[in-house]
Amino acid sequence: MPAFSALYIENQCRHLPRVQDILKKCEALPHISCERYGEVFNPKAQNFRLQKKRPALVLAKKHQHFVLPAPAGYGFGNKNSYYFSHLLNCPYDCRYCFLQGMYRSAHYVLFVNYEDFGKKISETIEKCGHEPSYFYAGYDSDSLALEQYSQFADYFLPFFKNVPQATLELRTKSAQIRSLLKHKATKNVIIALSFSPDQVSKQLEHRVPTFSKRIAAAKKLQEAGWSLALRFEPLIYHKDYKTDYQDLFQRIFSILDASKLHSVSTGLFRMPQTFFRNIVKLYPDEALFAGHYDTQQGLSTYAKEIETEMLKHCETALFDYIPKEIYYRCGTGCETT
Amino acid sequence: MIHIVVALIHEALTLITHYKMKTLRGKHPFIIYKSGEITLIVSGIGKSSAAAAVGYLQALNRENGPSAWLNIGIAGHQQLPIGQGFIAHRIQDRANGRTYYPPQVLPFSLPSNNLITVDCVEKDYRENSAYDMEAAAYYSAAIRSSTAEFVQSYKVVSDNPQAPVTKITKTFVNTLIENRIHEIKNLIATLRSAIKPYREIHAPHPQFDTLIQRWHFTETQKVQLKQLLQRTQVLFGNPLPCQAQTTNHTSAKTFLKTLSDTLVTHRLSF
């Protein structure tokens, strides 16, 4: 459970029931008023790494850009792919995450006007006509990680249930699935779970629940009829990566029913160079960034031959368990959960 | 390194005694005290004095790496009782409306409150907030050289509608701070323990100074050297790996190339 250091509340949304509910849950914390969340979140002289130890929760209202086109190569839908972010930042602390390099602050910003998101999502679906549309909710955060406060699932699951032509992907590393299990499995909602080998997770995915907790949660979801997807993004290159990824796949597919999976994807470590530089400044003592990285079209990446070798190996290992039809490579420039 | 900024000498006396501080020798435009890693400057009253004092300490310490800043002083408050201490979590400059939010991420275990910086003594206490005459200027100046998490303002309530500002005496100010010395000590200790690892992480490699004496490095090469040494240290520890021993090289360029090659061939293991 995240321990916030403080609550910042935009004056314009203090009166909202969703906000009042969160304020009640966090009565012991300082409640600090602000006009716009950017006053707290955007100033230059802030240190993401220091803030990550005890981030604050900022309750704000979003005014524009509710729904954005998904970056090229992100997700499983080719056309009509969008993302929306009700939350900025995430309680986990994955060293490879691009958010560290993109934001100056590690505070969580929760946009509480879900109804406005809903309106814009409806408009977007309408624009797509009879064509299917895809919405990703885990691009700037972990979809379920602050669920206890956000109650995101309570609003958006029933919402998407009513629009079967649209598909929602929730991407998470959380093992807290109560909020999902209290709803009936919804056909057009995909729960995408990210996994890394144990050794990688222990070193790089700080505060993420253990593999055993997460795979147990995944099994429960699958048994309850939820459509699951698996994400192996980013693939982390290291000395024993071949055996580590093979072991990971073996462990996962001995527990989950591969025939019921919606999709499986891999993604390479790719990050805009400016974000990468910011992260190296924040974590000069991090071994992940101390080695050599290439630059390809403004992205910091592993060397081409390493990428090819890793993909080939991991894909071959994966196809022992899953059909090629449900597999895709994620080709975006950023990785979060 | 912790820099304490106070407006009045009577806000400083308890700290000077407690930390056994000595006057900093030399000609300075402000009274400055020092003890080990703590520096205290007496700025005088008002925003411009506070900003100037911060600027002066920044200039004096520009080679010393990251520092933490703490403004300590008295403040009026609409509701809080006299003698209550708190950290400012929101500082507003009434004159220009600018608002700052010192991040409350370090575990201070202290109450926090709004603080409004005014140009003239506040006698009306119109808002449920504290009032001082320096914090906004101090804060905006200090965050030019330090990350905001390490810039904090601590105040002790000296006046409120029931006990107006006109009754404040020098001895009273001293007593207010003296009564809160345990809180101030904890605050300084917290800042100290937070900034220590931060300074260590950003400290140059122990061999950096020796290496730049050995060959001629251009300014760009010095930056490259700093980064490469840091990365090498992360992956191989100290001392440098054998292929990067200085005896094998004849110039800065060849040395940098070897360091860089060493990193290319390294494979991360967990």
Description:
- The complex is a heterodimer of chains A (337) and B (270).
- Chain A is α/β, with parallel strands linked by helices and 337 residues long.
- Helix content of chain A is 34%, strand content 20%.
- Chain A has an eight-stranded mixed sheet with strand order 4-5-9-10-11-13-14-18. Chain A has a five-stranded mixed sheet with strand order 2-1-3-8-6.
- The longest helix of chain B has 22 residues, at 181-202.
- Chain B is of the alpha/beta class.
- In chain B, strand 2 (22-23) and strand 3 form a beta hairpin.
- Chain B has helices at 9-18, 47-60, 135-142, 170-178, 181-202, 208-214, 219-236, 252-264, and strands spanning 2-6, 22-23, 31-35, 38-42, 68-77, 85-93, 99-100, 112-117, 130-132, 151-159.
- Chain B folds into two domains: 2-202, Rossmann fold, CATH 3.40.50.1580; 208-264, no CATH class.
- Chain B is elongated.
- A five-stranded mixed barrel of chain B has the order 5-9-8-6-10.
- Chain B starts with a strand and ends in a 6-residue tail after the last helix.
- Chains A and B meet through strand 2, helix 9 and helix 13 of A and strand 7, helix 5 and helix 7 of B.
Secondary structure layout:
The complex is a heterodimer of chains A (337) and B (270).
Chain A: E1 7-10, H1 17-25, E2 31-34, H2 38-41, H3 48-52, E3 57-60, E4 68-69, E5 81-83, E6 87-88, E7 93-94, H4 99-102, E8 108-111, H5 114-127, E9 133-136, H6 147-150, H7 152-161, E10 166-172, H8 178-181, E11 189-194, H9 198-204, E12 205-206, H10 211-223, E13 227-232, H11 241-253, E14 263-267, E15 270-272, H12 273-282, H13 287-290, E16 294-296, E17 299-301, H14 304-318, E18 327-330
Parallel strand pairs in A: 1-2, 1-3, 3-8, 5-9, 9-10, 10-11, 11-13, 13-14, 14-18
Antiparallel strand pairs in A: 4-5, 6-8, 7-12, 15-17, 16-17
Chain B: E1 2-6, H1 9-18, E2 22-23, E3 31-35, E4 38-42, H2 47-60, E5 68-77, E6 85-93, E7 99-100, E8 112-117, E9 130-132, H3 135-142, E10 151-159, H4 170-178, H5 181-202, H6 208-214, H7 219-236, H8 252-264
Parallel strand pairs in B: 1-4, 1-5, 5-10, 6-8, 8-9
Antiparallel strand pairs in B: 2-3, 3-4, 5-9, 6-7, 6-10
